[in-house]
Amino acid sequence: MTTAQPSSQTACAAAPSVAEVEASCRLPVLFLAFSGAAWLCAGAVLALLASVQLYQPAFMEGCAWVTYGRLRPAAVNALTYGFALQTAFALALWLIARLGRVELVAPLGLTIAAKFWNIAVTVGVFGILAGDATGFDLLEFPLYAALPLFASYACIAAWALVTLHRRTERELYVSLWFVLAALLWFPWILSTAQGLLLGWQVPGVVQAIVAGWFGNNLLQIVLTSFTLAVLFYFVPKAVKRPLANPGLVSAGFWLLLLIGGWCGLSQLAAVPAWIPSVSGAANVLVIVPVLALLVSLWQTADGKIAESWKSNATFRFLLVAAILLLGVTLCTAVFGGHYTQFTFFATARTDIVLLGVFGLAALGALHYIVPRLTTGEDELPSEGLSDLAFWAALFGVLAVGIGFSLAGFKQAAVGASAESKFLEGAVTGVASNLKLVTVGYGAMAVAALAFLVNFGLAARRCCLDCCGGAR
Amino acid sequence: MSKNKKQPAPAPERAETEPTIAAGGGSAWPFVLLGVILFGCFLHVENTGGAFRADVYQAGMKTPPPQADEPPEVKAFKRGAQLYAAGCAGCHQATGLGSAPLNFPPLAGSEWVLREKPDRLVRIILNAIEGPITVKQVAYDNNAMLQFKDIYSDEDIAAIATFVRGNAEWGNSFGFVTPQQVKVIRDASASMGSQKWRAETLAPIP
Question: Residue B85 sits in which domain range?
Answer without folding.
Answer: 72-202
